[in-house]
Structures are given as C-alpha cells and as structure tokens.
Amino acid sequence: MSTTSEPAPAGPQPEVTAADTGAATAGGGGKAVTGYAGPVRTPEGPAAGAVSVSGTGDATAPAGGVANTGYIHELNVNTLTMVVKQGPRDPAPWPHQVGLVPPRALSFQPRAELDRLKEAVACGGTAVLTGMGGVGKTQLAADYAHTAWLNGRLDVVVWISARSRSAVVAGYAQAGVELCRADAADPEQAARAFLAWLHPKAGAIPCRWLVVLDDVSDPADLRGLWPPASPYGQTIATTRRREAALVGHGRRRIEVGLFTEADALAHLTASLAAHDRHEPADGLAALASDLGHLPLALSQATAYLVDADLDCAAYRRLLADRARTLTQVMPGAGALPDDQEVALSAAWSLSVERADLLDPVGLARPMLQLASLLDPNGVPGDVLAGPHALAHLAGHRPEGADPVDAVLALRVLHRLSLIHHTPDTERQAVRVHQLVQRATREAVPPDEYEELARTAGDALLDAWPEVERDSARAQILRANTEALRAHAEGPLRSPGVHPVLFRAGRSLGESGQLEAAQAYGRDLHATAARFLGPDHPDTLTARHYPAFWQGEAGDAAGAAASFAALLEDGLRVLGPDHPDTLNARANLAYQRGEAGDAAGAADAFAELLEDRRRVLGPDHPDTLITRGDAAGWRGMTGDVEGAITGYAEQLADRLRVLGPDHLHTLNTRGNLAYWRGEAGDSAGALSAYEELLADRLRVLGPDHPHTLTSRHNVARWRGETGDAARAAEEFAGLLEDRLEILGPDHPNTFLTRANLARWQGEAGDAEGAVHALTVLLADVLRVLGPDHPRTLKVRSLLTEWQGRPGAAR
C-alpha cells in the first residue's frame, strides 16, 4: 500500500520503503501489510534504510518483523531483556508502525460505536472500548487505525497486545528503541523513554501518533503506563474489564455491545455475498437472532455455513440440535475467518479462568454455571443468592459462601464482561448472553450437570413467594423456569418432576392465563408420562393441573370428567388415603358443584372432611380447606345459616393455626362476608369486605387476583346497600384494571362487565345496560360457547333488562 504524508520539513527527503516481515498476529488478527512508500518525516538525522527485524518471545510480545528500525534485535518478554545484534541507533523515520495491526475483517460492519470512538480520541483523547468477548472491540480499533493511517492522518502507530504488564512494557520498549534511540538492553528504561517521547515538546516537529493497547487483561497492568494526553496523540484500549480504574484522567469508556438487528443482517448478507452465496433476509434475521447478534459468532457461523455448503435453514437446525456442541457447529481452528485465533466455544474461557482467581476466589465459575441454566434476559438477584445457590457456591470453596460472597462473585463476572449485573433492577439483575451460557453449560462435566440443574430449580423455588404480589416478577420467574426446563429437561425429570415446574404452572393460572395454564399442564403431563410412565405419582400429580384450570376456565363438566378418571387411577395406584387421591376427590366434588350439582358437592365434601380428619388431623391445611368447601356448598343448597356457622368456626381455627395474614385466612373472611350478605345483612357484608380489601392490599398488593375479587365484592355489596351509582363507578374502575391484568377474555373480566352493566341500569341507565349486555353476550358466546353457565347467566340478565322501563325496544 502507499500514501503520502503531510509535508516534511524543508530540505531533501529520501524515499524509503518499509518492509514488514512479521508473521505473528496481535489482538486476534492475522498478518498485516504495514509497508509504506512515500515521503518520510524523520525527527532528526539522516533517514535510515529499511532492514528486517526478528523477535523472539511468547504470543503476547509485539511479534514479528518491524519496519524501518535500522538494527536487528532479539526480544525475550519472559525476562524482559533485549540484545542488540547489529546496526545503528538512528531513530526510525516517520511514518512508522510498531507491532502488527490486525487486518480489516472481510465484511467489517461500521457501527455507532465507531463514531463514538472517533469522537473520544479527537484532540488527543483516550478511548477505552469495553465489552464481552466477541463483540468486535479489536476490529473497531483496527479499522480506526487502518483508516487513519491510509488517510495520512498518523505518523506513528504502535499496536500492542496488552494481555500482561510485561507485554505492554516490551511493546513500549520496542517502540522506544525504534523511535527514540533507547537502549535495547534496558527495556524498562526504553519503555519510559518512549512514554516521555510521546509528550509534546516545544520546538520539536509534532508527531501524530496512535497507541493501541489491545485486550487489556487487568487495569492494574497499566498503572503508570497509560500514554499521556497530547494534542497530537491518540490512545485506544480494548478490554473485557469494566473497573472504574479504566476511566478518568481523560479516558472515556465506550461500551461495545452486540450488533443491532440491521447490523447483523448487513454483516451476514455481505459475508455470504463475498462467497457468492445469497439467502432470504428473513432466514438470515432468524440466524442472527439464534446467535444473539454476537459479531464473532456471526462471522464464524458464516464460515461454517460456507465450508459445509449448508443453506441457512439447515444450519439453524444444526445449531438448535442440543446433542451438538458449539465446537461441532462452528469452524475449527484452521478454518476461522479473518485470521481469528480463538474459536467461539473458547472465546470466554480465559475470562472465566481469570474471574475464578479474583476475590472471592473460586466462586465466579460455579456462579456462572448456575446462571447459564436460567433465562438470558434476566435472573432475579435473590435467585442467585438464596439458600440453595449459596450451598452450591460453598461446595466450591473450603470456607463456604454467604450472600455477600454471592454478590461479589456476580460483580467479578460483570467486571470481566461475562454477565451484566445491574443490582438496581432486582427483577432482572443478571443477564448473560445466550452463547456464553451455552459454552458454559457445555463445559460442565456430565456427572455434575444433573445436580446443577436441580440446584437451579431449587434456587428458583427459594425466591418464589407463596403469594405473588408482583405480576412482572412472577412472569420473570416463569421465564427462568422455562429456560431451565429447555436446558435440563432430563435432570428435572429424574428422579421425578422438579417441584418448580408445578409451581410455574400454578403461577400461570393464578395470573389469569387460564388457557396457557391448561396447555402447560397438558404438556407437563405428557412429558412426565413419557419419561416416568403413566402411573408414576408425579405423572398423576401433573394430571391435576390441566383438569383444574379447565374448570376454572368454565368447563366444569369437562373438568369433573377429568378428575373422575384421575381419581380412578389414583385409587388403583396410590390407594384411598394418599394425599393426591384425597385431592382428586376434592377437585371432583368442586367441579360437580360448579356444573350444577350443589347437593352432590355438599355431600361429597362432608364425606371427604371425615376422611381428611382421620388421615391428616383436624388442623392440617387440607382439612381446614375442606371444612370451608363443605360450608360453602351447604350454603349453595340453601342452608345459608349453616354456611355462616361453618365459616365462622373455620375462621377461628385458621386464625389460631395460620395467623391473620395467611392467604387461606383472608379467603375464609371473604367467604364469611359473602354468606352474611346472602343472609340479608348487606351493610355487614360491605363493611367486612372493605376491611378485607384493606388487608389484601397490604398483604397481596393491588394486582393480585384475590385483591381484585375483594374490590368486586365491595362494589357489589355497595350496590346492594342502595348506592347503585357508586357501585357502577367502582365496577368501571375495576374493569380497567382487570382488562390490563387479566385481559379481555378472562371469565372474571366478563363477570365485572356483567356487574357494571347491572349497576349502570340500577343507577337509571337501562338502555346503557342493555347495550353493554348485548356486546358482552357476543363475547361470551365467542369464548365460552352457548351452553356455558356464565353464557346462560348473561343471556338471562340481558332478557331481564330488556324488559325494564327505559330500555330500548
């Protein structure tokens, strides 16, 4: 390559050609052509001829031949000694390069970070490019160096692989010998001479320089070695570290992230086009998503796809095959594109090793292993600092681990860009790139994987509250459970279904997503039956869930049939007194009552109560639940006083056994208030529900389904006391929240709409009530069908209001 520098000082200027004979690479790149032809600026003395230079040392040294040195030397970075073999000590003429700048990537993709880099180094600034391995930090620095060099904006470029302090000193020493007559026998002094040379000096010819410190492993390695601020100089450092020591003193940190979707698509398109390959844009976008928009992964995947002669769809199937590792779906060391040195599967191994050596020693790797089984989009911080997570960490360090150690381990992983740890966003405090997760999982020894997976499930349960006050957090916990199930389905089914899977299904239904809960339950049951057999206790337990949520969605008759079949198998496999058999009896009785057989439900619960008292004892939670069910269905048969007596007795025992704020105690208060209202005490029911609402808001939060139920009952009994207008107003507010929280097709949303229409009519707007009920009937017919009990109720209510005075005929 050739270019022309800025005008040189007056006087004849010889032309020389710089020859780069190096063969090693720096910063992940390959061979770089750094030869230069054109007018040469020399700081003093005659121009030196171009001769070759040889270097020895490890891979962190500024390896290979260096142009325009005027001497030959050997460099040993292990002992930091430099021996001059021959040649004059004249400084190299400008322009001059020290070290090898990695080649520009075949399909280099300009990014917003490049603009920020240019802005940061303008007028003598220092840019510190930080980010996880594989995001393209070195390529951004190399592109800037190549562009500035070829455009004649630089006189000196020094590229140093900065993975250790000794490598930095060696690189500076080499530059000091070449550029400022430093003594090669004293590398420390030569390095200091170079740093001093970088400072601008009055009266001297200004030298426009760029120093790149590539892949800084430890900020401490640069203590006292940062290039000075200079109006003529620029510094770029690339690192995976995030310590505060990297910024300040004129240094600006630039976080290099993943490709945007557009960047990733452009990169894949250009890379394939270079091989005369073309793929549909939607397929490439899907591949980019599969690879998490990580630049290194995209470039290596493209090379594999081309070398294996696969189309995008076929390669995506290989990538998704859990039986294959990253090593098997990415190119080998000899086939890496752009002279890359590290395969994707090993891109983060050095970072993990270094993290494990930092305080708290030995905890970073097991913490990353645990996080690798969970949701890459966010893991709540307390999941990774709970009892089971701490026990997992303690198993890797003799002195054990406490919550502070867990947080420190996360901070270490964050500092090395292996995770993003943002404690202020507790719901999603930890995020890990999906490919970092995959590489980490694949490195876990097979005999440890099962235990690790079950520990992750236990850690999720540690952080899962019995009462879900935060719907967003509940969704995040469900997402983490789903990720765990995807990564570890085998371990989670041995020796049985992990309890976290049942908890996630219950959470889904309690959030109001009834159809999703049914589908989840059916899938969980099918998985359990396939791996454990149809009669395994966990398989039978899994059958409860789709049947229960089927009934909650309104299909009481179908749910009753499912529970009847389950009860038959439970009696055969588990026996009559097994808790799961008793649960099946309770669910069967309830669904039969919901289907219209109130007397049959009351009798079934009375019989079940006797058996639960005998098997479980009078104060067992399941026995107390059955007492409430027996009382409720007694009321549904017309024995209202019996229901009141039953619930009052149950409340006394629940207060004694469970306490005032337990979910079941609050439910009993609600049931007691309801039956008092049904007995004619509307004011008493309203007062009881208002008190219950205050407590549910305090204990459960405003968005919990039971809190919404209390608001419903407050509005209903307010209307029953005669304040129809305020009841309509409260139902209107409740409807807004149920639409947002539960959605438009949830049965409870329909119930709120029906009550709103009723109390609008009672407040004098009969025509509005008819219109609202007409629209509601169309929706319930669409969702529930014509024969559902709630459909029939809406139809009856509409007929009633159509006959009221003031309604449109």
| Arithmetic mean pLDDT | 86
User: Numbering strands along the chain, what is their spatial order in the largest sheet?
Assistant: 5-7-8-9-6-10
Supply the CATH class of the largest domain: Alpha Beta
**Whole-number count of domains:** 4
Known CATH architecture of the largest domain: 3-Layer(aba) Sandwich
- CATH fold call of the largest domain: Rossmann fold
The residue fraction in helices comes out at: 40-55%
Oligomeric state of the chains in view: single chain
Give the uncertain stretches in residue-range form: 1-88
Distance between the termini: 90 Å
Largest pleated sheet: 6 strands, parallel
Helix-strand category: alpha/beta
Shape: elongated
Question: Describe it for me?
Answer:
This protein is an alpha/beta fold. The protein folds into 4 domains: 15-242, Rossmann fold, CATH 3.40.50; 261-345; 348-492; 681-802, Tetratricopeptide repeat domain (Serine Threonine Protein Phosphatase 5, Tetratricopeptide repeat), CATH 1.25.40. 54% of the residues lie in helices and 7% in strands. A 6-stranded parallel beta sheet has the order 5-7-8-9-6-10, with helices on both faces. The protein has a two-stranded antiparallel sheet with strand order 1-2. It has a two-stranded antiparallel ribbon with strand order 3-4. Strand 11 (420-421) and strand 12 (430-431) form a beta hairpin. Helix 19 (537-552) runs antiparallel to helix 20 (556-573) and helix 29 packs antiparallel against helix 30 (766-784). The radius of gyration is 36 Å and the shape is elongated. The chain starts with 14 loop residues before the first strand and ends in a 7-residue tail after the last helix.
